[in-house]
Amino acid sequence: MDRILDQSQAQQQRRAVAKAITLLESTRADHRAQADQLLTDLLPHTGNSFRLGISGVPGVGKSTFIEALGLFLIAQGHRVAVLTIDPSSTVSGGSILGDKTRMERLSVNERAYIRPSPSSGTLGGVAEKTREAMLVCEAAGYDIVIVETVGVGQSETAVSGMTDMFVLMQLPNAGDDLQAIKKGVMELADLVVVNKSDLDAGAATRAQAQITSAMRLFGQHGDPHHALHNKDAWHPTVIQLSALGGDGVERFWKEVTHFRRLQTANGAFAARRKRQALDWMWERIEAGLKQDFRQHPAVKKMMPALMRDVEEGRVPASAAARQLLAANTPTVRAEPVEAHANIVSSPSTLRQAQDRPSSGPTE
Ligand SMILES: Nc1nc2c(ncn2[C@@H]2O[C@H](COP(=O)(O)OP(=O)(O)OP(=O)(O)O)[C@@H](O)[C@H]2O)c(=O)[nH]1
Ligand SMILES: [Mg+2]
């Protein structure tokens, strides 16, 4: 842990960070316990970075842009970590993200750390590892953490759920066919970047205008915070750039800085982080419950036959689910909660324990 925190030994620190991330990617139970301990120890040193999510279709120029942006930020004195989430790797084990190969200059820079996506597990699992890797990077003093993801599947939702700002990269021709832009993803974007504007300036400008008006439409619905006249709230914007030539990187960073300042002042930054932490907890609870459920002896025994019955239409899915849930009776969980008190010792649970009257009714 000390090696992760010590910024004076660059090489040693980089190795320690890589080792820590490998540990938390491990599926072995003893490694998991070590990783949990490490994360708990690191937690007080985390949270001080700006977390930036970048998504877009394969080939839109994400890595090229991140390299240009990373070098720009390092020149300004920042330390930059880049993590990738590749939804294809969770299915095939292969990677469609070009990983390090397209960030050649950034990857050899002492003030940068680049980590490719874990190459196995479900998207939920990979997202969890990435969140944890982000904490390790923050403890190591990387003050800008960039999470790159390919714009396919559910990965955008996962990345926007773990970052302070979510950026969507588009190609200049995307504006010609707004159908191609998934509305749900567009609504997640805090900033849209039309890349490769050098290829066709006219098309890039058209795309910018079309996406801007589409985003205005989304913004009019629901949340009064999004009302365009509200000067304290951030309104998603669309800019053009050319990652290859490094054109527009400065403009991009100006937008990010403006976003960060506004969101900090109006409280949205802190609220987003709090919401993300709770969402993350619930997501892990649900995953844990599901895993326990699947491993329950009675459930395991009944599952294959019931699955066939549901497939063949002999038993309604809802009835099968109810039967399985009923079979999932607690096996070892019958002991009182206090028995676990030595495991859970967060400040708030301790406080509750102290506040609680030792006997008698609470009213
Ligand atoms: N003309 C032009 N080409 C660009 C620009 N940005 C990126 N490219 C090129 O587009 C190709 C894809 O760029 P990448 O940065 O690898 O794209 P990516 O979005 O990271 O791709 P994946 O990781 O595969 O999803 C490369 O050949 C880049 O050189 C740009 O601004 N202008
Ligand atoms: Mg890439």
UniProtKB/TrEMBL annotation:
Species of the source: Caenimonas terrae
Pfam families in the cross-refs: MeaB
Region (Disordered): 340-363
EC number: 3.6.5.-
Superkingdom as given in the UniProt entry: Bacteria
Alphabetic keyword roster: Hydrolase
CDD domains: MMAA-like (cd03114)
First-level EC class: hydrolase
Record protein name field: Methylmalonyl Co-A mutase-associated GTPase MeaB
Bias (Polar residues) ranges: 343-363
Gene Ontology MF annotations: hydrolase activity
Similarity-based family: Belongs to the SIMIBI class G3E GTPase family. ArgK/MeaB subfamily.
